[in-house]
Design a protein that fits this description.
Elements lengths: L2 E4 L5 E5 L2 E5 L20 E3 L5 H4 L2 H8 L2 E5 H10 L4 E5 L4 E4 L2 E7 L12 E6 L4 E4 L9 H7 L4 E5 L8 H11 L3 E5 L11 H11 L3 E2 L7 E3 L1
Parallel strand pairs: 3-4, 4-5, 5-6, 10-11, 11-12, 12-13
Antiparallel strand pairs: 1-2, 1-14, 2-3, 7-8, 8-9, 9-10
Helix pairs in contact: 4-5, 5-6
Bound molecules: nickel (II) ion (NI) and manganese (II) ion (MN).
The site of manganese (II) ion has 6 residues, from helix 1.
């Protein structure tokens, strides 16, 4: 049984055969307050970029759990400069790497890096039974249609907050380009500038493709 759990903003855990991955571990400062860093025990931490609502508790979690951080080379260097004990597996956009739990591909994301000289990214995690696309913070880009071509995406996690990322209209376009079976909206209602109605987003998706939209409140989970 594989389980995705939503912690608010863009933070998710993915439990897979006893391995825990956490994406953009924004916990202690997250207004959703689902969990504190000591409540989660990740084996891997996937970080898309350096903005505070994504980098979050990466340093504390990596040290407390001896977790391996999967991120871009620049983010990796930034983290090891914070603490040389942090274990980092640097990758970069367009690359893939096989880990014990499955394969990770790093995708582009149209967004700021949050650190000098870096770029933001997204992740495709290919597990044996399912493929999950975590878009990170990004604008809509037409190459999203290529992301699902290599391996069909079962679940896509897409930002819908607008202002800093795609809003509902562009995220619905992204859903159509990706061809994912299930879309889970994220990165909305975390602050006053990203207030969105996820049911409005779901109605837009319904008009443009066959994907199911699963709306998770912070703290809720979805079996993948
Ligand atoms: Ni950001
Ligand atoms: Mn963000």
């Amino acid at each position: 049984m594989n389980q995705l759990r939503f912690y608010g903003q863009a933070c998710f855990t993915l439990e897979y055969n006893g391995t825990t991955l956490i994406f953009d571990p924004y916990l202690s400062a997250n207004p959703a307050k689902v969990a504190m860093p000591e409540d989660v025990h990740p084996d891997y931490i996937l970080v898309t970029h350096g903005h505070a609502d994504h980098l979050g508790d990466t340093v504390a979690l990596a040290k407390a759990n001896d977790a391996l951080v999967i991120t871009t080379a620049e983010m990796g260097r930034y983290l090891t400069a914070q603490d040389s004990a942090i274990r980092v597996e640097p990758m970069h956009i367009g690359g893939k790497w096989a880990f014990p739990f499955g394969t990770v591909r790093i995708t582009p994301a149209l967004h700021g890096a949050g650190i000098p000289g870096g770029v933001a990214c997204g992740f495709v995690v290919e597990l044996e039974e399912c493929t999950v696309y975590f878009a990170g913070d990004t604008a809509l880009f037409s190459d999203m249609k290529l992301i699902g071509r290599r391996k069909a995406i079962d679940v896509a996690l897409l930002p819908i907050g607008d202002r800093f990322t795609m809003g509902p209209e562009d995220a619905a376009e992204a859903a159509a380009l990706l061809g994912a079976k299930t879309i889970i909206p994220m990165h909305y209602n975390g602050n006053p500038r990203t207030q969105q109605d996820p049911y409005y987003f779901a109605s837009l998706v319904k008009k443009c493709c066959d994907a199911d939209v699963v709306i998770l409140n912070p703290g809720e989970s979805y079996q993948v």
